[in-house]
Structure formats: C-alpha cells, structure tokens
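Exercise (ungraded).
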Amino acid sequence: MGAEKNRRVSMDPRSGLFLLIMANVVAFTQDSLKMELGWIGLLILLFLLCGCISAGIKYGLVFLAVLAIQWYVLPVSPKIIATSFSIFANYARRMFPCLMVGHLMVKTISLRRFIVGMRKLHVPQKLMIPISVTLRYFPAIREEAGHIRDAMRLRNIRGMEMMEAMIVPLMISASETAEELSAAAVTRGIENPAPKTSVIRLHMGPLDWICIVLSIAFAAAAVIM
Amino acid sequence: MIRIEKVSFGYGEEKNTLHDFSLLIPSGKCILLCGESGCGKTTVTKLINGLIPHFTENSTLKGDVVVEGVRVPEAELYVLAKHIGSVFQNPKSQFFNLDTDSELAFGLENEGMAPELMKDRLAATVESLQIQKLMHRNIFSLSGGEKQTLAFASVYAMNPAVFVLDEPTANLDEAAIGRLREQIALLKQQGHTVVIGEHRLYFLAGLIDRAIYIKDGFLNQVFTGEEFWKLPDKVRAHMGLRSLVPTELHLPEVRRASDDLYVKGLVVEGLTCGYRKQPAVFDNLSFTAVPGEVLAITGPNGTGKTTLTRTLCGLLKEQSGKILLDGRLLSVKERRRESFLVMQDVNHQLFYDSVWNECEQAAGTQDGAIEAVLQSFDLLSFKDRHPMALSGGQKQRLAAATAVLSGKRLLIFDEPTSGLDYRHMMEVSAMVRRMAAEGHIVLVVSHDKEFMRCTCDRVLRI
Amino acid sequence: MSNSTNGKMLKGKDLITIGIFSAIYFVINFIFMLLSGFHPMIWILMPAFIALFSGIPFMLMCAKVQKPGAVLLMGAITALIYFVTGQFTVIILATFVIACALGEIVRSATKYNSFRGNAIAFVCFSLGMTGSPLPIWLMRERFLAQISEQGMPADYIEVLEAVSSPGMLIVLFVAPIIGAIIGAFITKSMFKKHFSKAGIV
C-alpha cells in the first residue's frame, strides 16, 4: 500500500477487524434474505462514506448478479455447469460481506496504520515482524520473477522446464534477501523488546462506533433468528 | 571512539579472515578501510556494528571490540543500534517497509521514542538531508539511488555517534555517489565518527582522515588522508586499489547510423521505446555497433538504458523504429534469438545443477564446443560445480559462456563491475574485450568510468 | 551472548526469514486457491494440490530456522492474510492453528534438524488449508435448503449432496496428506539436486 490516502472518513483498523469478525458470525448464521440485503446495503453505505464510491456500486451490482445466477441461471443450466458453480455461488454469496469488509480495509487503511492498530491490540512482535516482512516481500517476488522470466526467455527455456528453472534463482534470491534485510533491520533495533511507538495516532471516531454497534446488532439478530 | 584490540576472527574451520587486528579510531574521525576483495574490510565493519559475533554462526572471535564505551560482543544488537548506524550496499534489500515514511521512522519506532520527539526528529532529518521529494511515496517507486538515500536517512534519523558504511556506492550512479559524498561531509561536520569500507575511492578525496589498507586479513598500512591521496598510480594499482582520482572518459562517440543500412553489425534506426500507458522513455535513437568493438552505454539513471537493452534483447517491443543485424530487419523474437543480456544480478540467469548442464542447455545441438568454451572462460575445472556455488565473477563468466554457446551475436553486459575491486574489474575487462575480439557485437551499460576507459572503444550517452 | 546456537528463541533474523519464505508459500498457495473456484471437486482437492507444490519454501524455512514457532508463524500468516481480506472464514484460522500445533510437536520431537521430521511436519501443516472448503460441510443443511428453495431439480440436489457427503469429508483430509508426502519427496530431490550443492542449506 502506498502513502496515506486522503479519505473523507476512514475506519480505524481495530473497528475494521471487529466488523470482519461480526461479518463472519453473520455469514455462518444468517438465513433471512431481508437481513442479508440489509447487511449488504449497510456495507455499501459504508463504502460510499469512506470514499470508495465506484467499488461500492460494483459490489452492489456483483451481488445482484450472484443472486440472479443463483435464482434464474443455474436452475435451468446443464447439469455440469449447475453442479460446478452452485456450491461456489452459494459460498460467494455467504462470504460476500466478509469480502467487502476485507476489500474496504485494504483500500482505506494504509499498511502503516494497520500495523499501529495491531500494536495497540497487543499483537505480539513475534507475529508482527514476519507478517510485515511477508507483505513487504510480495512486490519483491513479482520483481524477481520478472527478471527470472526475462532470463528464461533469453535462454529459450520453455514449458514444464520453466517451473523447475524458476525455483532455484527465486530461492537463492529469497535467502540472500533474508540475510541482508535481517542485517539492516537488527542494526536498526528491531529486536528491542520495548514497545514500539509511532507518530501515527489512532482514535475511534463516530463512524467506528456506529459500525461496531450496528454489526453487533446484525450478528445478534442473525444468531437469534 | 572505536577500539579494536588484537582481534582474530574466522568462520568455522576455514582460515581466519582477520589476524591479530588492532585499530584505534578517535571520535569524530572519518576512516577508510580499503583493500582487495576478501581482504577483511567487511569483517572489520561487522566487528564495529556487532553483526560479528551476534549475527554469525559457527565462528570464532578472539580479542576485544569496544565502541563508545560498550563492549560489542557482549551487548545486544538493539542497544548497539543506538550508538552505531549501519548502511549496506544493496539498496533493494535494506528497507523493511512498503512506504517511505514508515521506513524513515523505522529505527525511532524500534527505540520506542516518544511520538512528539519522533515528529521533530523526522522533520529535522528531512530538512537536513533535503529529502522532501522522497516522502509519502511507495518504496518500490524509488530509483536505486533514492533507495540508498532513504536507507541512509533512516539511519541518520537515529542520530548514532558512529556510522559504518559497507561499500555504499556499489550500486549507485555518479549523481547518487555525489549525494553520498555530501552526506558524509555533513556527518563529518556534525562530529560523527565515520567508518567506510569501499572499493570506489575517488569520491572520498578530502573527506578521509585516515586510510587503513588491509591485506589478507592483516592490517597492512595506515595512511593519513593526504598521504593516501598522494600515492603514485603504479603503487595504488599494485595494492589492488581503484583509481584515487575521478576518471575522465574521452571515448569517441558511437557510430551513428550511416546511409548504408547493410553494414555488418547492429544498426538501430529511429528507435522509440516506452512502456504502455506511459510516454516514450527515449525517442528516435539511431546508432551503429560493429563486431570487434565494445560500445559503452552510459548516462544518468532513469533515462532509458534499461529500456534500450531490453528492447535490443527482444524482451520489449519497440514503439517505432528499426533494429537490423547485418542488414536484416529483426523482429522481437529474432532479437531474442540473437542477443543475450548478462544481468547485473547474475543469480537470475543460472538455472541448472552443474556448470556443464547449464552449458548443455545453452549449446543445444552444439555440445561439442562446451569443453573448449569452458576452458576459454577458465571454468573447465568447475564443470561439476553447482552454478550457485561459484563466486560472483565465475557466475558472470558462466552466463557469458552460455551466451557464446547459444551462438548469440549480440552480447550486452549490464553493470558488470558494480562492487568489484581493481583486479576483478580488469579481469572482467579482459573477458569483455575477448568477446569483442571473437566477433561478437558487445555493448556494456555502466557507470564505472575506470572500467569503460580500459574496455570500451566508443560511447553512447543516453 | 553465545554465537553457536542462539538458544531456542526466535530472533530478528529468524522472524525475517520466516516472513520471506511465508510470502513465497503464500503466493504458491494463492495461485492454486484461485483455480479452485471452477468446480467443487477442485476446491476439495485444492489443499492437496497446494501440498504437492509448496514443499520447497516450507522445508527451506525449516532448514534455516531450527527453532520452535516457525511452522506456527507460517501458518498464522497465511491464515491471517486470507481471513483479513475476507476470503475465508474464521474456520481457516482454527484449522491452521491445529495443523501447525501438530507440526510443531513433530519438529520438537525430531529435534528440528531431521528432514524426515520436517517432512512429517509439512504433512500436518498442509492440512491447514482444509479450513477453506470445510464450511461446505459445516453449512450443509443451510446450503441444501437454500438450493432447493432456488428451484433446483432433485437430481442436481442429489449430486450436490454427494459432493458434500461425509465420504467426501474423508477425501478432504486424506488427499492433502498424500499430496504432502509426494511434495516432500519432490522437495527432497530438489534439495539434493540444488540446494545442498548451492550451499543455502
């Protein structure tokens, strides 16, 4: 994720995670279509409030498409297609709110704020450090793979051989990066057991509290009904 | 103050990298550690910043290292980090975060500094180093030089008394080296103690108080800054050191495309290249490169050297223009067949489990030639070795050998001498010249003027 | 500060090594996860496919970090990324924790430096991804009720019932074990062929 984004309103990472957990509860327990629509509608509203207007609309349309597929397309499809996709469509429909919350968090909360949020939740350093490195290494994998692919094209390595050929350079590069990154990190004090601080201040705003309250309400309703 | 007393150090059962080494560095001085590759200067930097012994396994350390009153082998690395800042040579693998703001604050966050103090310190760092343009950006969008500046700034923000820099210019272009020089000058002015291990020496003129020449793990000679820079050229070459003065490059310009497009060699005409959705990186470029000549391609970063080499190799399609070899127009695929790029990081292009197998794949049906080619590259005795177990120079030669065995006409070397000492730089130079002499068309992308002066015949400035 | 073994505590270098190889593991995992949307059978076999191809980053990490906690962290990172991006339910956190705990026990029993021990740990670890298709069984009644509501004909429902049957549940758990064993053998040959000779193991 890049620099701090200028959003009108933004969620606190902690309320984002809470929302996600509630979305999980609802996904497992809800049975009523009205509740489902209400929940998704609320999430779309959240998208709009946070400035992700086009994404919010897209999710709305996709959800309607999933419903349409489930109700109108699959029942009249050939058996192969129906069996292939109906489990998946059902799963997608149930997970939809979780996916939406996840997407919203990725788009509106910068990695930097997310990490500060995790620190505030007392997530142990022994977990925070590897996760940070994992996330930071994804773009590097893409870069490395690109160079390796170029090299394979120059040597005319094709087909199945490509898979084995990719592995050695990728792993060597990973090992070296691990060495060098570790040296650069420990010489800047990463092993310090003292709590890490940040110039970033997180506070829970009205939007966060509303989200928390409403999500508890929906989850409770889903469980009870 | 740094005190290294009678230190001997070795990895496992191997021969010691340092023997009975003693050095005293007073506070506020700027010290250069120099010598041939493998002499032990990196080991000394690691003694100072604590990577030895805390970061090494299976090693033996005898003797004492005390920095700013702290015994290094006994202190925790994160305690040492407050007094000793380290900058390493590879910009790509020094940053921990994805955005520049986090990276700058990294050390201070680890220290647990109070947020108000942190804010002031970060603002002061940005101001001091004039890095406003680097803030609020994705680290992957930074150039190599900018990344190295950010790495330096991140350490600077912690304000340690001692700075240790281990070959910081290895991957930098001239402009970035100039900026590094300014940064070191600033450190001196502020009274920090600076220890630099380096091959590239010219940019440090006037900054160094003492130069320590290390040979085979022994402290061989100590010079004052003035004495060192007065060393005659022959002596410094004998010591295996790179040039002490900036090299002037007075090569003739590249041959431009003549009216005769059927010249033997590579003809580039009106080449415009760029990436999708972005403006062209360069426009209407024309030149000729003939076999037997080594053409240098040089210029500041970001002007298109990489784009040009990738286009010539057939890894990128041109937007407009023509590329011809011996009078024949080459498509992207044909270019890939005829050319080869020895990359800056050779680890990306070695795939097999032995030198011989690597060559076998490259040679295809021409495998009778493998032995002779390996011999010419001085690799025949390593034919069963795994490519990744070779030294850097050997890997480079192996990559070049695969190019020769695949019958490639056009060979491009991308920064083949970054981080090399004098002797190895001359070996690469000899290899490159031999490639040209054997009839290949050879292009070299480089910032290394010393290397280009003794290797190249013409220069194309982009 | 000893410099031969830094005890059994995970230090900065270990954590960073775990992070990097977890990134590689996750990429391999993710590619196969994407493919599994095409058919429920593929989805059920997905953990097995992943196990076939993901042995190398796992075993390399085990070779480099011979301490407790490495397997647990690799699993936790994978599960957390999937959970926080909303792709999988909390079930995946549970299955990974259990699978990794088993893996850690195995590694501890084999003193962290045996390839076979690490391979068995890999088999345990590979069961973590079963948390992805597992909701099919956990929500089976709801699912079947929903699709009959949609108006799906009875013979379709029968097929779907078969797919989410208890028999299939056994396949869900057995397939990754087989996949991981084969994956471990593939990894062993890659280690012999490349990584030992290259000096990174």
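Further reading is listed at the end of the chapter. For now, observe: The helical segments of chain A are 13-29, 33-49, 53-73, 79-108, 111-120, 125-154, 160-186, 206-224. Chain A touches chain B through 54 residues (CB under 8 Å).
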